[in-house]
Design brief:
With 353 residues, the protein is α+β, with helices and mostly antiparallel strands. It has 11 helices and 14 strands.
Length: 353
């Protein structure tokens, strides 16, 4: 039996045994796109007519829809089986797509595999799965239909799926020390998506870890100027915290036990100081920093950890790592199955000091 492939992560394409087949004109391509975006689900005739033939009379639109459906069936005939691919099913039509035939399905499966690897702490495997998912893209989704009204919302939704996967893959690669390779890619991503702050935070961190602290701070300055001029806004809290952490060369920026940066991971809402120890006297990076044991609220649970606070500055130089957060009754639960960091807001730490 012939193998059928549908591709929407780029120009709309149908392939039979690896060879692209003609799909037809714009209306027919748009019809196929609508059916693929709701693969294995019924798309009503009313919706198809409204999207494709809204300027035609009722009878003319119904006749045109039937004609285009008939032509699509002929295109799919080389792979027809006892169960037809395009079927009439009240109140409209359903396009049957088998597992692995639609590139969007393969993309989502690979991203799910990557996230499962992240949850298991296997960042190298996660990176490989993310790369495989990204390799399925051949440009903007539905590139040849991008300016059709029916496609605009879906194009933005699909593009957001891709960018979210890229962000997660970059995080995974930063956690295994690939910052030198990531810097050029992140510079391109920031240029293409100037208001996407997560890419800017990742670029700042990659530059810092590459020994380019000043350039990382320059990224923040440019971000602040751009957002102020274009949007009348300040950068988000994550970028602000990251800039402050770079200024004091927070060791947490180099990653915790699992290689992950802790800045901005979680924000504690309340803190009390349980005790102080004498400042470190080894002349190292902790010279002059007192050791405090803090209790704080994290995501509705309570956690306790030790950290070092430089008196008079209001800033953490490091944070403690915890494997779980615990409720007031003593019941504990893991956080993302791996250690996480808590970073205190400056005002709260300053008050504790």
């Amino acid at each position: 039996m012939s193998r059928l492939e549908f591709r929407i992560l780029g120009p709309l394409t149908v392939r039979v045994d690896g060879v692209a087949v003609p799909i037809g004109g714009p209306k027919q391509r748009a019809l196929l796109a609508l059916l693929l975006l709701s693969a294995n689900r019924v798309v009503s005739r009313d919706r198809l007519i409204d999207e494709l033939f809204r300027d035609e009379g009722v009878e003319s639109a119904d006749h045109a829809l039937r004609n285009h459906v008939s032509r699509l069936r002929k295109i799919l005939s080389p792979v027809a089986t006892d169960d037809p691919r395009l079927v009439a099913r009240p109140p409209g039509y359903l396009l049957r797509v088998e597992p692995g035939e639609l590139d969007l399905d393969r993309f989502e499966r690979l991203v799910a595999e990557a996230r499962a690897s992240l949850a298991a702490g296997d960042r190298a495997s996660a990176s490989e799965s993310f790369h495989a998912a990204e390799a399925l893209w051949e440009g903007r989704p539905l590139a040849d239909l991008e300016f059709e009204p029916l496609a605009r919302v879906e194009v933005e939704r699909l593009e957001e799926l891709r960018l979210a996967a890229v962000e997660e893959r970059v995080d995974a690669e930063l956690s295994v020390g690939r910052q030198l390779v990531l810097v050029p890619e992140l510079e391109t991503l920031v240029a293409e998506h100037p208001f996407r702050e997560r890419f800017r935070a990742q670029l700042m961190l990659a530059l810092y870890r590459s020994g380019r602290q000043a350039e990382g701070l320059e990224v923040y300055r440019h971000t602040r100027e751009l957002m102020s001029a274009e949007l009348g806004l300040e950068p988000g809290i994550e970028l602000q915290r990251l800039e402050r952490a770079i200024l004091v060369q927070d060791p947490a920026l180099n990653g915790g036990p699992d290689g992950r940066a802790s800045v901005g991971a979680f924000v504690a809402t309340t803190f009390t100081v349980d005790g102080w120890e004498e400042p470190a006297a080894d002349g190292g990076p902790w010279a002059g920093a007192a050791v405090a044991t803090l209790t704080g609220t994290l995501l509705g649970c309570t956690a306790r950890w030790a950290g070092r606070l430089l008196r008079g500055t209001g800033w953490w130089l490091t944070v403690g790592w915890v494997d779980c957060v615990c409720t007031g009754t003593g019941a504990c639960m893991p956080v993302n199955t791996t250690p996480v960091a808590a970073t205190a807001a400056a005002a709260i730490v300053a008050e504790a000091a």
